[in-house]
Design a protein that fits this description.
The chain has twelve helices and 22 strands. By secondary structure, it is an alpha/beta fold. The protein has two domains: 215 residues, UDP-n-acetylglucosamine1-carboxyvinyl-transferase, Chain (Alpha-beta prism), CATH 3.65.10.10; 190 residues, Enolpyruvate transferase domain (UDP-n-acetylglucosamine1-carboxyvinyl-transferase, Chain, Alpha-beta prism). α1 runs parallel beside α3, α1 packs across α6 and α9 runs parallel beside α11. The longest helix has 13 residues. Bound molecules: shikimate-3-phosphate and phosphoenolpyruvate.
């Protein structure tokens, strides 16, 4: 048994290229982390099933029980943003910090909005970034706010979840482009599931003052994690992969992967149990706007580069402020596939193809789980080394074991 947690890098090959298996995906960390915050805000009674084994969810569960003054959100964006709203409005005195990268991920939009609502938040380092000291809520602030929605939807989700607790509720007017919109809808859907009404019309979201009600909720498997299995099916010689538990009517915007992959070589059959993926012909050019599903961009760039599909993509502005600068990380890593990714006009990126000349690949992961998971399927083409494989723990800790289940040979690498 290999301890993937301890490895500096690992080597992947797939001797047959034939994939036939049923894979139990981890539960969605996005759904789980909303449900945990709502459960904490509603007091007793919320019953959550299938909570994710993802570190982001395990961490939030631990932190919500912690009496420590200093709270470390590590590299988890939802944990940082959701706890900021939660501690601020419940008046808990906390110092909230994270990894070095987390302290470079902006939080000003959320902090400004919470201050207007009556929160007391002080930056302990650079203005606009964690770490922060939170405490002492005076709940008589202005409850009608204008909030920028073009940087991160997590600020909006954080505000919405505490909205029902505010004495006069909350009215948010979203300014600018609405990025990652399905994540805002997911927040509202889960709030409704726990008995709270909210209205989203045009650019305005209204959440009256109300109480969350107890309910039970079973977290759906993670559609973002499913995207790597789509990639593997597309690159395999033969494949039939079942992903039980996924729903066609999902709260997760990343279920868009089913539609995307119609063009890129995978047929999705929705069954009573979940989905069944099989191979179909792919197109040779693909254009897509990732504004609603930014976490799928790395999967699609790596896959198109490997399959020789030219790609034009937009809606990827937020990629620069995630676990790493994902645009830059992609630009560097696809060089070994002979490809380049260039911004051709403002916000429009084009993947230019080249010849794959290497007999094997080695990919760096930049402390970003999605770099590791998006490039690993390329081991179906050439022996592939993935550096710092432990990054997958953020959302999909059993990823490497699941690859072994479908016949990948996964060994420790010297590199
Ligand atoms: O709310 C959420 O659960 C998330 C929202 C998205 O972030 P942005 O809103 O910052 O794009 C997404 O990239 C992230 O993985 C999870
Ligand atoms: C961007 C991500 O997560 P977060 O922003 O929650 O750290 C992600 O999981 O791809």
């Amino acid at each position: 048994m290999i301890s993937f947690k301890a490895l500096a890098s690992l080597s992947l090959t797939h001797p047959t290229g034939i994939l036939k298996e049923s894979i139990n995906l981890p539960a969605s960390k996005s759904e789980a982390n909303r449900a945990l915050i709502i459960a904490a805000l509603s007091g007793e009674g919320a019953e959550l099933h299938n909570l994710s084994e993802a570190n982001d969810t395990q961490l939030l569960q631990r932190l919500l029980k912690s009496n420590e003054e200093t709270i470390n959100a590590e590299d988890a964006g939802t944990v940082m943003r959701f706890l900021t709203g939660y501690y601020a409005v419940t008046g808990q005195e906390k110092i909230l910090t994270g990894t070095a990268r987390m302290c470079q991920r902006p939080i000003k939009v959320l902090v400004d909005a919470l201050r207007e609502l009556g929160a007391n938040i002080e930056y302990l380092g650079e203005e606009g970034y964690p770490p922060m000291k939170i405490g002492g809520f005076k709940g008589n602030g202005n409850n009608k706010l204008k909030v920028r929605s073009d940087i991160s939807s997590q600020y909006i989700s954080s505000l919405l979840m505490v909205g029902p607790l505010l004495p006069d509720g909350l009215v948010l007017e979203l300014e600018g482009k609405i990025g990652s919109r399905p994540y805002i809808e997911m927040t509202l859907s889960l709030m409704r599931h726990f008995g709270v009404n909210a209205d989203f019309t045009g650019n305005t979201i209204t959440v009256p003052h109300q109480q969350y009600k107890s309910a039970s909720y079973s977290i759906e498997p993670d559609w973002s994690a499913a995207s790597y299995w789509y990639s593997m099916v597309a690159l395999a010689h033969e494949a039939e992969i079942d992903l039980p538990g996924l729903r066609e009517q999902s709260f997760q915007g990343d279920s868009a992967i089913a539609g995307i992959m119609k063009h890129l070589g995978v047929y999705t059959q929705f069954t009573e149990q979940g989905v069944r993926l099989s191979k179909r012909k792919h197109e040779h050019h693909f254009s897509f706007d990732f504004s609603d599903c930014p976490d799928l961009a790395q999967t699609i760039v790596a896959l198109c580069a490997a399959m020789g599909v030219t790609l034009e993509m937009t809606g990827v502005e937020s990629l620069r402020i995630k676990e790493t600068d994902r645009i830059q990380a992609l630009q560097i890593e696809i060089l070994s596939l002979g490809c380049s990714l260039q911004e051709v006009t403002d916000g429009v990126f084009r993947l230019e193809l080249g010849l794959i000349e290497n007999d094997s690949f080695s990919f760096r992961t930049y402390e970003d789980h999605r770099m590791a998971m998006a490039f690993a399927p390329l081991a179906l083409l050439r022996p592939t080394i993935i550096q710092e494989p432990r990054v997958v723990r953020k959302s999909y800790p059993r990823y490497w074991e699941d690859l072994q289940k479908v016949g990948f040979e996964v060994t420790e690498s010297e590199e």
